[in-house]
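Extended Data, panel c. Modelled sequence:
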Amino acid sequence: MEYSKELAKEFNIKEEYAGNIITLLDEGNTIPFIARYRKEMHGTLDDQTIREISERLEYLRNLDKRRSEVAVLIGELGLMTDEVMTALDNAVMLSEIEDIYRPFKPKRKTRASVAKEKGLQGLADMITEQSAGDPYAEAEKYVDAEKGVETAEDAVKGAMDIIAENVSDDPEIRKRLKNIIRLNAVLCSKAADAETESVYKPYYDYSEPVRSVPGHRLLAIDRGEREGFLKVSIDIEPQKCINIINRLRVSGDNACSQLVKEACEDAYTRLIFPSVEREIRSEMTDNADEQSIKLFALNLRQLLMQPPVKGYTVIGLDPGYRTGCKLAVVDATGMVLDTTVIYPTHSEAQVKKSKQVLKDMIKKHHAQVISIGNGTATRETEMFAAECISEIDEKVSYMIVSEAGASVYSASKLAAAEMPDLDLTLRSAVSIARRLQDPLAELVKIDPKSIGVGQYQHDMPQKRLSEALDGVVEDCVNSVGADLNTASPSLLARVAGVTPTVSKNIVAYREENGAFTSRAELKKVSKLGPKAFEQCAGFLRVPESKNPLDNTAVHPESYDAAKKLLELCGYTIKDISNGGLSELRARANKIGMSVLAEKSGVGVPTLSDIITEITKPGRDPRDELPPPILRTDVLDIKDLKPGMELKGTVRNVIDFGAFIDIGVHQDGLVHISQISQKRIKHPSEVLKVGDIVSVKVLSIDAEKGRISLTMK
């Protein structure tokens, strides 16, 4: 297969670009590096598209590998024909190749194989030809008591088993039936026991066309089946499928034709439909898994790219009932200043004492923001914090942050190495505070699957989910960049070209030799060779460097181009540091980007990126997003009234809507039908995690803690 041609067609890009991407990937370049620093070679595609191309390339290569394996296996049997070879060459899916191989694949003992052992293949061939002869008269020749063929009827029955298996193994028949079933079948679920109450009750008597079952619904049904509450099947009118087989296999109107017709019906009922039903159920689940993984990845990307709350001393509160609320104070750099435990949900005396502790911490450390984890006792902790804020003169606000994965992180070796002197319960409070200060830097320490911004993530194929989410984390880290002198090993390990071992070596070098003074000094780090340096250097910032380009996303390979650009536009490299390049792009446009690119020795996309970066050294793309909502008071669900307008933050986007934090303990749900005036296929078309939105309250069910919202 010509991969570049196929990828160019599928992704609607130039064949040259597809070929370049394949070459760059095969040379060991990372996707973030290719996306950012090789734009001229692929037409400025983003990292997500290049990652999809990489995944598709792997599938196509696996397809070709399996095609070759099957061709060899059939060839070794001496059964390869031009027709089979053509079918293999034309197959575009792995399932098609497996269907072609099916007739040749060694089988366990079947009714057909038993019939063949009894010598009935000849009779099966005669019946299949559908000539005008009498099949039962012919069958008399095959009666052999020693072989277990007692009568002509036994012989015909065995021959029909052979015919049924041949029909079942026909790749063309299977292909057509799969298409018919995909288009016309209905997915049905029934209660395994109608008397049993469960969360799956909506599916106790449910049916929907296979082609239109939403992914989230299918995954819920799959889980209900696994847990024993549901019985699930695919239903279709059998005769519709049997008629298709008959048209392909029945060619006459005689006794043999009638037997072939009966064999075709048996093939469909006993062999084809059960097998195809399993395949289509599996295919549906795979598609639903992929949709769910993509949504999880999209939500994760948006969560990781949340704007950091920079420059504040933050108090982190990890709520709890029995064991109290863990409190940690961190300075603007994330360094731990103080920790303690308070009891805002215990006795009146304890609440009073806890208030005083919190107020004292605020005053002592000049804390400006309180970060509250959204777990057990969050509601009470939020009310407690709001009361404290109202009783002091200091200007303090608070925000609820996701605490997903905080307990896993606090018990990890990484947390123990970072905070060896702290109890693991207090480490989670530190993590909650840091999540507000820099969500990306803190959340990279946690397994992405534990961050909890998807649906049914525990039902997903875990390897595929991990690959997708790791790719998102890698893209986000490299999009933002990392400070070489402050980044944790976890953050550094996500930088393009940096392995976990090299990330530890960078930190060890830093501890032994002091702060890095330039990007070039990276070359002295153990096991960080020329290739790794090429991949990672542009994503690592050194604010302390004498060369201001070291604090930008300009790659060292383009430093000469950047200097030439400045010279041609009448600037010097010193102007980067003193912020004197506000007119740079205007001057560049006046001279002409193509002219400057040619004289600087780079392409226009790279030149444009250089201008963006040196105009704002140390630029963080997250700063361009709306800041998170910081609150000073708290609403109770009882305070809500239908029609009330509120500002909220999107916490999670799922297939049927989005959950919005409106400052009440329970997030409200905006159903997909209430997101936009125009019809949308998926909430992600309009909303993303972290968006600040205006909503109206539609209805409140205080007893069940449900809030329905609308954006219309």
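The chain has 30 helices and 15 strands. This feature is highlighted in the accompanying rendering.
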